[in-house]
Amino acid sequence: MPQTIRIRRSTTAAAVPSSLLTGEIAINEADGIIYYRNSSGVVTEFRSRIANGDKGDVTTSSNGATWTIDASAVTYDKTAPYTITTFASQTLSTLLGQLVLCASGTATTITVPTNATTAIAVGKRIDFVQTGAGQVTFAGASGVTLQGTPGLKLRAQFSACSLIKTATDTWVLIGDLSA
């Protein structure tokens, strides 16, 4: 059975329609908000229907100036820098998208595992900063290609780099590097 959809519009900021008929929607062009009549007959602002707790739940204001993220989606350990003094390659997947502070006083080697050992999607990255005095060197496990210029070491204390996966077992290292 065909339905007719009627669209009402306003160019007045913060104007909310007082009532809508079944099948009507309203657009406030000034605010960029769409309104509809819900099943109880109440005029309601259209919002995404992402379930509470889904990672990435985001609500923004109409001008993008304010935003909130579902409290269960982001926790302190996901946003705060992650500090290491030694490195285990099996933890690489837990560091994706994070800032890793390498705080060792002695030389540290970060070995990138094969995709068969630790499957990570192409395009993912990890950022590193050498905060300790020990030089940080990056190495690939057997079968892994690491590309960086002029080398695969952080140059000095407080040097930084990003490790980015570009193919199944290929990574590129960009930043303040040395040979």
Q: Short description, anyone?
A:
With 179 residues, this protein is mainly beta. The chain has one helix spanning 76-79; strands at residues 6-10, 24-28, 33-37, 43-45, 58-60, 67-69, 82-84, 99-102, 108-112, 125-130, 136-140, 145-148, 153-154, 160-167, 170-175, 177-178. The protein has one helix and 16 strands.
Structural overview:
By secondary structure, the chain is mainly beta. The protein folds into two domains: 6-69, no CATH class; 76-178, Jelly Rolls (Sandwich), CATH 2.60.120.640. It contains one helix and 16 strands. It has one helix at 76-79; strands at 6-10, 24-28, 33-37, 43-45, 58-60, 67-69, 82-84, 99-102, 108-112, 125-130, 136-140, 145-148, 153-154, 160-167, 170-175, 177-178. The strands form five sheets. Strands 7-8-10-14-15-12 form a six-stranded mixed sheet, with no helix packed on it. The longest helix has 4 residues, at 76-79. The termini are far apart. The model is unreliable at 49-54 and 74-78 (pLDDT under 50).
Q: How are the SSEs ordered, and which strands pair?
A:
Elements: E1 6-10, E2 24-28, E3 33-37, E4 43-45, E5 58-60, E6 67-69, H1 76-79, E7 82-84, E8 99-102, E9 108-112, E10 125-130, E11 136-140, E12 145-148, E13 153-154, E14 160-167, E15 170-175, E16 177-178
Parallel strand pairs: 1-2, 7-8, 8-10, 9-11, 12-15
Antiparallel strand pairs: 2-3, 3-4, 5-6, 10-14, 13-16, 14-15
